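Reading is simple: each integer encodes one residue's backbone shape. The lines below illustrate:
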Amino acid sequence: MAFCTSCGAQIPAGATVCPACSRSAAPTAAPPAAPGAPAAQPSAGGLSDNIAGALAYVTVIPSILFLVLAPYNSNRFIRFHSFQNIFFAVAWIALWIVLNIIAHIPIFGWLTILIWPLITLAGFVIWLILIFKAYQGQMWKLPMIGDMAEKQASAM
């Protein structure tokens, strides 16, 4: 299946003129990227930058692996998302420790029962946004955490 290099329309086999735009174009094996779409350049390890950036948010383990493994640790985009995920995980754990301490205080503990589901939902939404922004090829920064991650990613 061939596609026009000018408009991306499908070209019938053996045709040298695009039926959609009537331009004489050499067919390609895949359609061109949509305008405004992030460029998915494969890095030396085989994963494109946006996929590796999104995978960095799955758990802390891929983040650490991306910071250690050779083809990924030299890429600033992947390093940024790896550091941002690690700092987000540390902040999330610290928040839950503080909430657990507050939960053991007699009256405040009962009040935090209403807050826990909201904080959990907010954290989940932020996590999803981070994954989607990394997949779109954007370096979306969280307040304070993003600045620290950017500083660490640029340090190499």
Remarks:
- Confidence is low (pLDDT under 50) at residues 27-39.
- The longest strand covers residues 2-3.
